[in-house]
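User: Predict alpha-1,2-Mannosidase's structure from this.
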Amino acid sequence: MPRSVSKHVGNIRCMKRNDHAYPADELMPLTCRGRVRGLEPSRGDIDDALGKFSLTLIDTLDTLALLNKTVEFEEAVRRVVADVRLDNDIVVSVFETNIRVLGGLLGGHSMAVMLKESGRMVWYQDELLHMAKDLGLRLLPAFNTSSGLPYPRVNLRYGVRGPETRTGTETDTCTACAGTIILEFAALSRFTGDPTFEAHARRALDFLWEKRQRHSNLVGTTINIHSGEWVRRDSGVGAGIDSYYEYLMKAYILLGDDRFLQRFNTHYASIMKYISQPPLLLDVHIHKPLLPARTWMDSLLAFFPGLQVLKGDIQPAIETHEMLYQVTKKHNFLPEAFTTDFRVHWAQHPLRPEFAESTYFLYKATRDPYYLEVGRTILENLNRFARVPCGFAAMKDVRTGSHEDRMDSFFLAEMFKYLFLLFAEEEDLHFNVEDYVFTTEAHLLPLSLSTASNSQAGEELDDSNFEWTCPNTRLLFPDPAFPRNLREPIRSAVDKSCPHPTTHREPGMGRPPLRAQDFMANNPEHLELLRRMGVSLIHLKDGRVQLVQHATQAVSAVAAEDGMRFMQEMMELSSQQQKEQLPPRAVQIVSHPFFGRVVLTAGPAQFGMDLSKSSSGVRGFVTVAEPYKGCSELSNGEIVAGRIALLQRGQCMFAEKARHIQKAGAIGGIVIDDNEGSSSDTAPLFQMAGDGRNTDDVTLPLLFLFHKEGNILLEALKENREVEVLLSDKARDRGERLSKTVRRHEYEKKLVTEDVFKHITTRSKW
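Assistant:
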């Protein structure tokens, strides 16, 4: 193992110290103290992982053993046995407690048994296993439903008894929450000889399988645990579903039950048919799988290339992993969510390990040293940007590098394992990791638990689903350059370095292929050219359009190639437009009775006045333009002059709207989305592009409000004769320094009725 890497990966000795956090569940690395539930401000569902059971210590047990820190491991086991109590009157997540705590106890038990067999820890008498069974029994009440799907939460002391124990009132759970139980529960059953746990986990998996959408063979994200109806019918491989697929494959590996492999292969074929658009993985609707469900991807799908390696489907694994790597290099870390054109959608990064996990599995499969360089990048970024004096801090915003006082237990449980294994030489490992299966939390369960063939009689298995798995990659890729050739186009698309293709003519078309920079979505001729190239235009709910290519639908092979070049150009063009990512702007209602306390998140324009360079912003009264679309000369120009014009999106380009209101004498403009229900709460920041022409003639500021925020402004205009707003790069004053006029009307605030404010929120999305 390279010493420069070993020095950082192996520097985990501080975990055994109780200077800052022990026996708390987590370390707060910025304030150097432990996070104890109930003593810190609630973070909502995130805190359901905390059960006052020294979470990080248990979650990290087998990491210590893997790193050959046997002294620290033995001390940690003694502390868990002596100090940890599981009968706490506290409500915890069944899913998180299963994968982190039960999995941690079982992984620690596996390592302790191995060390005892080698002559160490001779004192160990299955104490961790006894604790694991105790915890398993405390989780079992959650499975007392008619469907067999577990309640999402359980009280460790009282189980599921209703509102008095703060449990039993939920009706929904995520697919992954119910489908990520089988490894831990089956291992517990086989370690202890009690079949109850495995039976409950199998019943939950069977129910999910039965409730799959039979046409698409996909599952939704959220399901009703009583009726089995899908509550959220979007389907992908990221948050909410991810480890359900993982556990079908790994249950086959660990338990030897062919049925799990059959189910996985059935789902996988549908994933590759509908969700996979290499290198992207896009959510779809389970009943209409050809329709996209969203235009962004979450970081949890980064585990999927690693699962594809286990499946033996290496090529798409390489492609998706490379896309993730290029996004990572742009921001130092993988954003919690990013758009299909690789912009930040959610800027947080809680030090998730899934990308490192896939990097390790791809290196194991290909032995391509490229993945060692990827791992080195991950490691260096962690040490450069996340390391703080008391540990490693989650990134609050990958764009600014700001930190969050948070270090989840999975960082030590998973990230350290996968980075260590990626760089480890054979002599660094004191046992064979091939004898174990990794749970979704990277806990080690021995393959000796397998029962070989465990197929049950009475159900015929479909042989067509038993495809090869884990092939010899040297047979797949006899040319060492082949993986590199797969990565290169993806790197070009994300990095904006893809060369412009040479213009040529397609036989039968009689004209050069359509170029991305010339494309107009409302041009019928352009749409026909797209159709011939196999490119379809999908109108999304948020008013944007998405381009998807299916080469098989092109009129010819040459047209299909043109379509691929067009898509690459479009990604390059989009990336170039986003090179300088503009932050959100603010529309602040400053007139009576709002006094600056209502701030609406607005999208900027890529033309016109740059509000970030204005110290005072632009302040003025608002007026609705006539015509409202603003696509022709205004009929109320005299009223608009000297004011900020309100316009509706649609029918013409944003720059055209800006020119019309500027000609009328407006000092600014606000475009309101015409897509009813759109909101900055659920849609990514929208930036208004130019019209392909020089827009230097536009000098006023133009901002964009989604429908929800725009309605707040329109309602204010209905209720008040005059509404004054401030357009700026960020909110100002917020009522802290009130003018004489504001103070004179201060008493009138009490007269503002609740119905004016019921939909108004002062919010900052970023």
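Residues 66 and 431 are 8 Å apart (CA to CA).
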